[in-house]
Amino acid sequence: MNRDRTVRLRWIGWALTSALPLVFVTGCGTWEKQRGTEIERPTKSAARLTVDVRPDRPAQPAKPITVTASDGRLYAVSLTGPDGKPVSGGNAAGDATWSNSEPLAYGTTYTLTASAVDAFGLTATRTDTFTTLVPDAEKHVASVLPEADSTVGVGMPITATLEKPVTDPAQRAEVEKRLQVSASTPVEGAWGWVDDKTVRYRPKEYWPVGSKVSVATSLVGVDFGDGVYGGPGKPVGFEVGDSVVATVDAAAHTMTVKRNGTDVKTVPVTTGKAGFTTRSGTKVVLGKAPHVLMDGTTVGISANSSDNYRLDVSWATRVTWSGEFLHAAPWSVGAQGSANVSHGCVGMSDENAKWFYDEVKVGDVVVVVNTGESKTMEPFGNGYGEWNLDWSQWLTHSAAGASGTRQL
After folding, report:
1. pTM here?
2. Residue 308 contacts by C-beta under 8 Å, 6 or more apart in sequence?
């Protein structure tokens, strides 16, 4: 039995069981007085349908199209575009209303056909044709990180950068809702605004190892005001690799690396000396390079200072935009494991730096502890510092609040 016939039979069954109270409880007579009287069956359905669209006014893609039935229940709803493809939607509890669950396209003509059945099983049907508005301008997601099809570490947040600023809290909340995150292993997470153009998604805990993740980038339907609406975009997917977490103990002058929770290696290191203390806290690998020219003047050290330097550094793993790396420092091997003599970076031997460089990837985690100083990793602006905020603190930067990922 096909679905349409099954649904129709269900409504007819409901109609038959509902007909008596609808017809005979009301009016002047009673069931006892009318028992022997032949009741004439109506020829027209009592069900009425209303649709919140107007043929003389363009529909807003941001607002779902709602169909409502009264004196009956919805039987079927079809909303299609010019290509005949149905728009996804669903009934509300009680089958009294229906609305689309996916946004409509701009400047497009749609046809909506809805049917409802009354207590006698009689059907009422209406068909509406309407067109959606054409924006004066569109606002898009300009870029997304991680890059599509990349494999990243468990600490990697998702960063969406918009073409233009968004400052209104309600508009920010709509942007967050449109940037839906899906994952093969569901997690709780939330978007948080780094600045007026940048919004970042962080799970409550690190990503599960092996997860496949996808983020939607279409903002279609978001009303930014003054005729500006969100533009389309394609989803971006990536994968989460093994969990690699390095813990740098500045007091013990060591770095211990764990892979998937198991200790892999502990190596001697040196960290920042007095006046150049390495930031404590949780950092995330931003990138790697086999050679980096490091110049002290770029981080505010005077060219005439005894602390100034200009070095070609090998096996450099970056963790802050301000210039903190984990890298080879053959000139400080004598201090590694016993003293902190660097200008803020974590230095190690050529061999250990090469091993670490090969071990880590973008998104892996580096935690610095026991520096003895108050200098800490910034939550924003100097890399991925979001993990230095607890979950409640992170949620204060979200307009829409926490949201679980959809199943990928």
Report:
1. 0.82
2. 296, 297, 301, 302
